[in-house]
Amino acid sequence: MEGSIDERVLAATRAEVVAFGLRRATMTSIAKRAGIGRATLYRRATSLDELVRDALVDDYARMAGELADVAHAAGERTTRADIVRLARAILEKLSQDALLRALLDHDPELLLPYLVDRLGRSQEILVAGFENALREAQLEGSVRAADPRVLAVGALQALTPFVVSRRVLESVAPHEMWLDEAAHLLDAYLAPKEPA
Length: 196
What we know:
Tetracycline Repressor, domain 2, about 75% helix, elongated, HTH-type_TetR-like_transc_reg, HTH_TetR, DNA-binding, Homeodomain-like_sf, TetR/AcrR family transcriptional regulator
């Protein structure tokens, strides 16, 4: 099998949860998919929940890397329009992420603490990426003056329903329309205040 043990374990975790849901997935099946022994897997993680969280963190880290890329594209300073465009693209990717969709469909209680109680590692990764991009856009002048972390967390909390409530939203209007609405919401949230 190709890839590091870690890459294979995370890929196997995603495949297992997507195929069977969290309740029916097993560490034994994940080890088998990854081509490693159970003992090796248990040295990597002590539970299936831990593996799922690690897989989500890996997915979010990839998206945060895209945030970093846009913050330094073409050597120009990041603008609010860049941030809004990328946020829309990330919402689209999260909406299509097979692991996240499987959790929302079959095991939403695993995600509940990160919606109502605290930010998880995966959310913190996105917040850090947004925070850096927002700081650059503030220097450029297209994002209002405010604590970049507050803006980043506020944006994350405002946009989360566009992913987790996709079925509700799509009962009213098509997904593309909701992505446009999310972009509009973020753009207005970040825009500098007009002089009175």
